[in-house]
Amino acid sequence: MTDFGIIGMASIITAGLTIGIGSIGPALGEGRALAQALQAIAQQPDEANTITRTLFVGLAMVESTAIYCFVVSLILIFANPFWALVTAN
Amino acid sequence: MRLSPDQIVVLQLGPWPINATLVFSWLVMALLVVGSWLVTRRLSPGGAIGSGQNVLEAVVAFLLDQIREVTRQDPEPYLPFVGTLFLYIVTCNVLSVVPGFESPTGSLATATALALCVFVAVPAFGIAKLGLRRYLANYLRPSPFLLPFTVIGELSRTLALAVRLFGNVMSGSVIAAILLSVTPLLFPVVMQAFGLLIGVIQAYIFAILAIVYIASGAELQERRARTLEGEAAT
Fold this sequence. Notes:
Chain A is mostly helical. Helices cover 89% and strands 0% of the residues of chain A. The relative contact order of chain A is 0.17. Chain B has one domain (5-233). Helix content of chain B is 73%, strand content 4%. Chain B has a two-stranded antiparallel ribbon.
């Protein structure tokens, strides 16, 4: 197999695995955080503002893990340095 | 596929390429400055206020409220820095629904620059409040062995701040582009509206995290210093 084939195949498979595996953890975490926040709002509706604000900030921090995976997989597909090296030669 | 507006070169000025990121950040800066100047030119302290002044007062009051709730300190010293961050990012993200406008925050360079501002502002506010010696001494608490981890933590949270903003804004535009080629009718509009929500929330989160980093430093140090002085006195 040529260099083109190996690098292309490895990049695409790894990109899929990266985003696939990388989004499992944040998805579970976000679901859990949301469930807890809803429970807290149901128990204390007066504190809904504070809970919602903290929830959004927390969700964004949890979500950033998935965003890192997304950025890495996009780099692998669209801005792969090894691919650029092979096509330049 | 284009991942960031850095790759669109609008103008070549000698050795310096002027790309779309620069042009659109200048546009947003001009919009904010001229808009505020036009509104604040004629301020009235009395009951009958113009609509522009009403909007700006609501924005400033909202920011002051949020900073006060998060830090439980006097919000005035933090307002100029955090408020500017929030207004700049939110304007960039909201304007990205305008066709042809590429949000400057969708470029890693802009996001990194904003995160570096926060990285510099944390010690700046800390030193301004506590003085250089007490601020630096805080790095050695609770134990000098934790110094490397504190430093790594400061660096990695700056990186996370930059990549989070860039990743969210960029993923919004990439998803819109992919959807346009798959289902060109109607569905991209829904995703654009969703992207608008994400953009505002990300701007809010960036500003809130900045104020949390800045204030937690100053406040914690203050409390620790106070307890130490208390121990020394007894």
